TrEMBL record:
This is IS200/IS605 family transposase. PANTHER family: TRANSPOSASE FOR INSERTION SEQUENCE ELEMENT IS200. Signal peptide: none annotated. GO terms for molecular function: DNA binding; transposase activity. Residues 5-119 form the Transposase IS200-like domain. InterPro entries: Transposase_17, Transposase_17_sf. It holds the Pfam family Y1_Tnp. GO terms for biological process: DNA transposition.
Length: 150
């Protein structure tokens, strides 16, 4: 073949360090827009970025020219710097070191989009920890719970 064709959809899930409730409503959308800009600048397709005070979901169409790990590293590094430059939190803002990356088929885009869009409503009933454990179980990912959260 003379060209590369792909269809890769990844949902990243990661938390504020210590799962602290630092992503406050007055400026949270600005962070999500900034993250979408990071994704676009890397030549990738942001589908939706949303979350609540202690964690976010980033759903992207990923081209194989960029690794899953490199994109999440760039999102975390650049968005942390942006949040700190805005002085939106006391002290230093940072994301938890790890993350979840979950793959989806094209036929699942709308349902994942709706799931990410409705994070506030979803988390009225379920904690982030319970949600994340559900993801790991659903995707049959082996884990040791002592290494999940800091």
């Amino acid at each position: 073949m003379t060209a590369t064709f792909s269809q890769i959809y990844i949902q990243y899930v990661f938390a504020v360090k210590g799962r602290r409730n630092l992503l406050q409503k007055p400026w949270r959308d600005e962070v999500f827009k900034y993250i979408s800009g990071i994704i676009k600048a890397k030549g990738q397709k942001p589908i939706i970025v949303n979350g609540v005070a202690d964690h976010i979901h980033v759903f992207v169409g990923l081209k194989p020219s960029l690794s899953i790990a490199d994109l999440v590293r760039d999102i975390k590094n650049n968005s942390s710097k942006f949040i700190n430059e805005q002085n939106w939190v006391q002290g230093k803002f940072s994301w938890q070191e790890g993350y979840g990356a979950f793959s989806y088929a094209h036929s699942q885009i709308e349902s994942v989009y709706q799931y990410v869009l409705n994070q506030e409503e979803h988390h009225r009933k379920k904690t982030f920890k319970d949600e994340y454990l559900d993801f790991l179980q659903k995707f049959e990912i082996e884990y040791d719970e002592k290494y999940l959260f800091d």
